[in-house]
Design goal:
6 helices, Rossmann fold, eight-stranded mixed beta sheet, alpha/beta
Length: 222
């Protein structure tokens, strides 16, 4: 996960009243912003895809926080039922709580913030961004389900980049529909030939490249 120029540490983040979750904080020297990762579809901070993207962002002087939005007990339930990953309200509330926690940390409180959401985590990121219109500077969705954010899409003020695999036909359509409901600056990028997990050669590198450019464009020092 790490590159030589990055400082990676494990931290405990408050995600709900009385509940903390482990997270990987990537803190390069003199970062100009920080991106929180909202995982989806049963994934966690150990997701190799999100770690890859985080590593590229760290190389671009963007700090990252990869955190688990479910407790170990909840993850066990979700592995059996796949229910909690679709509880967008729960995930969004915990992402908001993690964002507020960041604002209490002396090394991080001055950084401009962004969200990176994958799959159902993208919907949680958009709902959380809508709940904090002056706080979140940019959002990126990878293979996301923005449709699950529902009417909250209309309240998103942060510039939003939707990245979808060209072979992921259903999700492409859902992202196109979500785009029409949003009024914030937004773009849809389709990676040709890529499927939902961007496992094809070079596909995830394209995701990381587009994400880094988007965050460098919109994250500025507070």
């Amino acid at each position: 996960m790490t590159s030589q120029s990055d400082r990676i540490m494990e931290v405990a983040v408050e995600i709900d009243e009385g509940i903390t979750a482990p997270a990987f904080l990537g803190l390069p020297q003199k970062p100009f912003g920080l991106v929180l990762f909202a995982h989806g579809s049963g994934s966690s901070r150990h997701s190799p895809r999100n770690q890859f993207v985080a590593d590229i962002l760290n190389d671009g002087k963007v700090a990252t926080l990869l955190l688990d939005l479910l407790t170990p007990q909840e993850e066990s339930i979700d592995r059996r039922t796949a229910a909690l990953r679709f509880d967008i309200g729960l995930l969004a509330r915990r992402l908001v709580a993690a964002t507020r926690w960041l604002r209490t940390q002396p090394l991080l409180e001055s950084l401009s913030l962004g969200y990176f959401g994958a799959s159902t985590g993208a919907a949680a990121a958009l709902v959380a961004a809508a709940a904090m219109p002056g706080e979140i500077a940019a959002v990126v969705s990878r293979g996301g389900r923005p449709d699950l954010a529902g009417e909250h899409l209309r309240g998103v003020k942060a510039p939003t980049l939707l990245i979808v695999g060209g072979a992921d036909d259903v999700v492409v359509g859902l992202n196109r529909q979500a785009l029409t409901l949003m009024s914030a600056p937004r773009e849809l990028v389709i990676v040709p030939g890529a499927t939902h997990l961007f496992e094809e050669p070079g596909a995830l590198a394209e995701v990381a490249r587009f994400s880094r450019a988007w965050f460098r464009r919109y994250l500025t020092k507070r």
